[in-house]
Amino acid sequence: MTTTSTPLRVGLLGTGPWARHTQAPALAAHPGVELSGVWGRRADAAQALADTHHTRAHTGDEGIDALLEASDAVAFALPPDVQAPLAVRAAEAGCHLLMDKPVATTVEGARAVADAAARAQVASIVFCTLRFAPETSAWIAEQSARDGWFTARALWLGSLYAPGSTSEYADSPWRRDKGGLWDVGPHALSVLIPVLGDVTGLTAERGPADTTHLILRHASGASSTVTLGLSAPEAAGGVDIEFRGEHGTVAVPGWDGAEPAFRAAVDALAEAARTGEPHPCDVRFGLRLTELLADAEAQAT
C-alpha cells in the first residue's frame, strides 16, 4: 500500500515488444512509480531492458521471487496463459496486479487469478486500452450515463498477418494460435459492456482467415454486433465502434497511442490499492471477458 509521497514499486514481467515499447517506458517515466525491476526468460533481454531504464534485471524462477519481494505491484507483458499462473503467485506474495488482456484463454485460468486476488485482497487492473486512454475513457463514461441505446456495432480489424506485414507482434505464437477473437476481442467488449450491460446471449461464426463475427444481446435489452480479426488486408484494417439509440448515433473518438493509456491504468491501480475500492476493469471483469471469449471460440470452431 502506498501514500501520495511514496512511489509505487512496480516490477515488470516480460521483455517482448509490448514491454519494450509501452510498459517499461511508461513505468520508468511515471512520477508516482519506481520501476523495481524487470524479469525475463532470457537473461540478456532482461538485462538490456533493465539497463535502458536504470533498474535491476532478473531471470529464472528465483528471479521471480526476488522481483515480487522488491515490488508492491507487478505489471505483466507475457502471453495470457503464462501470465495467469504467475499472477496467482504474485497475488499470493501480496503484490497488486496490472495484467494484460486477456487474463487467460481458459476460464479456469482466469478464475484462479480472480480467486487469488480476492483471497489476498490485492488490487487489480486488466489493461483494455480504450478503458484507460483519456479520450476514450471519458467517452465511454459519457455513453454509459445515457439510457435509450438500441444497438451498437464494433469492428476491430488488424493486419498483423496480412501479406507484407512487418509487425514484431506477428511473431507472437499465442496471437497466431488464438487470433483476433482473443487479442482484440477484449478491447471491443470492454467498450460495449459498460454502455449496454453484461452479455446475456452470444452467437459466434467464423469469417475469412482468423476473423470472427459475434451477435450479442445485453442486459439493457440492446443488441450489438462485433467483427474481430488480425488478418485483414492493410487497406481494410481499422477500428470502428458506434452506438445508436434515442440520442442518435455516436462513434468512438481517436486516442493517442497506448503509453498514455497505460500510465492511466497505473494511476487506476494505485488508486484501487490506496482506497480498497475495486476498479470496474479488474480481474473479475477479466474473468467475465474470458468466459465470453471461450463461449465464442467454442461456437465458432
Task: Explain what you see.
This protein has 301 residues and is an alpha/beta fold. The chain is built from ten helices and twelve strands. It has helices spanning 17-29, 43-52, 60-69, 80-92, 107-120, 134-144, 173-183, 185-196, 258-275, 283-300; strands at 8-13, 33-39, 57-58, 73-76, 96-100, 124-127, 149-157, 199-206, 212-218, 223-229, 238-245, 248-251. The chain has a six-stranded parallel sheet, with helices on both faces. A six-stranded mixed sheet has the order 8-9-10-7-11-12. α5 packs antiparallel against α10, α6 packs parallel to α8 (185-196) and α8 crosses α10. The model has no long low-confidence stretch (mean pLDDT 96).
Brief account:
With 301 residues, the protein is an alpha/beta fold.
What is the fold's blueprint, element by element?
Elements: E1 8-13, H1 17-29, E2 33-39, H2 43-52, E3 57-58, H3 60-69, E4 73-76, H4 80-92, E5 96-100, H5 107-120, E6 124-127, H6 134-144, E7 149-157, H7 173-183, H8 185-196, E8 199-206, E9 212-218, E10 223-229, E11 238-245, E12 248-251, H9 258-275, H10 283-300
Parallel strand pairs: 1-2, 1-4, 2-3, 4-5, 5-6, 7-10
Antiparallel strand pairs: 7-11, 8-9, 9-10, 11-12
